[in-house]
Give the backbone structure.
Amino acid sequence: MSATRRGRSASAASATTRLPTSSTSTREECATGNRSVISKRRSKIQGWGVFATRPIPKNKRIVDYAGEKIPTRESLKREARYLKTGRIWCFKLNSRAVRDASVGGNIARFINHSCAPNCYTHIVRDTIWIRAARNIRRGEELTYDYATDGESGIRCRCRPGCKTRL
């Protein structure tokens, strides 16, 4: 069973999405420049969530999904433990490596899943960026599609009556 987050990639986010390019695309820029645009608080979707503290423009890098980089084999062992508590902390970087946000993670691990998300993921080398899929309003909860295989059996809570399994 695998419930590793794969996220919805930049290419899947929109056929017309054009990502800005920059020679200053660093983890530090995100951590220092965007920390004040998001905050963690209780979510109507599930447990904790991450919310915009001011408007966020489409395609803006919001935060990186941090965590220990581990081999895929190790992630399968850890996922089995996490799923017993209804959590999905592992995010697939590629076929060989995964980020485990339960170890060394940041606020991004609290971004909830939605079947109609306002964010998407963009993997650049070993960094998983959470980006705005559209303009996001102040106070709006950030969400992205975890793109799991559904085998965990965890029920999606993005809206009343959603039948998706994560």
Notes: The first strand starts at residue 38 and ends at 42. The chain has one domain: 10-144.
